[in-house]
Prior knowledge:
The protein has helices at 29-37, 62-72, 118-129, 150-158, 178-182, 191-194, and strands at residues 3-10, 44-55, 74-78, 139-143, 162-167, 187-190, 201-205, 208-211. The chain is α/β, with parallel strands linked by helices. The chain folds into two domains: 3-80 and 117-211, 3-Layer(aba) Sandwich (Rossmann fold); 82-116, no CATH class. The strands form two sheets. It has a six-stranded parallel β-sheet, sandwiched between helices. It has a two-stranded antiparallel ribbon with strand order 7-8. The two termini are 19 Å apart. The model is unreliable at 97-116 and 215-230 (pLDDT under 50).
Amino acid sequence: MAREFALFWESGACPFPYDPNHPYPIQDLVGRINQALKQENPNNQLSANYKYVCGRPDLFTASDRAFLEDNNGFRFFDTEERNIDCCFVDENGGVCGVRIHTAVPPREDVPYERKSDLAAARLIELMQTETRSGGFPRSVLLISGNSDLHMSTKYLGDRGFTVFVAKKPNRDGKIYPSGFEESGASVTFNWELMLCGGGRLYKVGPGEWKGQGVDEEEVAPWGVPGSGDK
């Protein structure tokens, strides 16, 4: 019996790649994600009806977006990545007020914490509201490496949901599942390898993780003839 996963995707944190030298056909996206999910259990697959994408509208081409909406039931919630004014008040009572999306005050002059990300905030709202509807799948795939979502994954886990997470590697190429594991995620994927149908992380040594499948050349990369048939 199939185990369906709802999808919550922060497209700015884990974007769909557009590389003319290594094309990723949008028609294969759902199949590749399903292929990766089946690394944990062969019955896993994305739900046909519950797929939510939050991020800037320019992260997908118009044709790719239309394909995902019309043929795969994706729902897009457009937000600016960071489009609010910084409201930090410094020790002299001055308000920063700069447009966070276009400028960041020097850290040494006006220190502040995290930037406000409206896509993540919208995704948190969806995760906490949509999952209450009747018939909603009891398993969730979150595509985002944003630590602001840790509380939401814990919230879903406390309500009995199974939560998988896909995230991008760090700038040094390494990837760690610890943050989301501590907040209730049971399986973590490397997003870049999930795009090729693999990527489930497993520990190979102290502080070292690898993505199952692609690293071991068991999954054909996108662009290889026949690789999108599964």
